[in-house]
Each structure stands twice: as structure tokens, then as C-alpha cells.
Amino acid sequence: MLKHCVFMNYKAEVNAIERKDVMENLAKLMGQVDGLLAFEYGDNLDFENKSGIYQDGFIVTFKDRQSHLAYEAHPEHIKAGGRLVDMCVGGHNGIIVFDLDVGGK
């Protein structure tokens, strides 16, 4: 199983409604991409004061890498992902991604 973890540092002018809209568009891929098992998103609570520049994030759970590749290539992901990049400080540089293999090892 693969966890695709994405965290965003938004430009100051990006409001909460815009942020929620892009997350909901990505969440709509549930049921459209085989092997996409879960999509969760939320605000960064930063209890340890280590990641304050990242206002929120999302985690997508995939069955395997093939499912992740199908998600990456899906036209709705490309559209929403492009919008997300435009919303972040420095474009791609305002986004951090971790892909974790959480399969039984």
C-alpha cells in the first residue's frame, strides 16, 4: 500500500474557499481511479511548531504504485494539480510530497 502525502504553502491571497474547492476536486477522484482507496485532507494543526508554513495537506491511499500512476495521469488530477501549483508560494516549491510504502515489510 502507498500513502501519497502532500502539504501546501499557499500564497497569502489564496482563501479558504479556494483551498477547499481544489481539495474537493481531488477527492472526486475516489471511484474514478482503480486502486485509489482513500482521500483525506485537513488543516495543519502544527502541534510541534515545525511545519507552520504549510497551511494544510492531504493524504491519498493507493493499493499500489500502478494506482498512483493512474491517478497522476488522470485529466482531473492534472487540472486540479495545476491549479494547486498556481496557488502555492513558488509554484512547485510551495508543495512538499512524501510517498510512503506502508505495505507489510
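Second entry:
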Amino acid sequence: MSAQKTVIELKELHKHLSFYNDMAPFPVYDTEYVDAVKKVINYMEDINVNYDALPVAACKHCKSLHIIIDEVENNHCMRCGSINEIEVFINIEKYLDYKDGEQTEENIED
């Protein structure tokens, strides 16, 4: 299995952000953020680091990876708006299992 699942998830996020920015009369998502996601994708494709082994944080409610941290260390889900409602997974494999509906406690990192 390839080590590009994180890149694939980021590409899906970029596709989502770009689609809604293109469809709306004014950008729904910050265009600098969309550009930053694209730059991260390009950077990750250029270097050989196994990002799939790194921990992943996702929203408890909408299962989105679109989480930002503000200046006072609060985690904001940019899709549903929840604050500090995240789950941290051991790796992207465990997140994808969770996203597909296999919610188990062993997937979540303490």
C-alpha cells in the first residue's frame, strides 16, 4: 500500500475548497488557505516522508480533517464549526477506518 493516503485526503480537501470557492459569487473559504493547502500537497509529493505514520486529528461530529488552531490554542472545525471537539488517531489508516464507520476505541490515540 502506498504512503500517499494523507496526500489523497488533502487533495480531496483542496477539491472541496476549490469547488465551493468557484461556485460562490465570493470565495467561501479563504483563498490564501486554499493556496496553502495546494502548496502543502506539492511539498508532500516532492519529499519522501511517510506522513501516513503520523497522528491525525479529525472532528468528532463531521469527521473532517479541516481543523485549524487559533491563537489561544482552540481547535476549530472549519466544516461544522465545532470547537475543541476533535479526536486524534494513531495514523491515517485508523482515521480512514473511523471515517468509513468502523468507530472503535483502539483507533483513537490518548
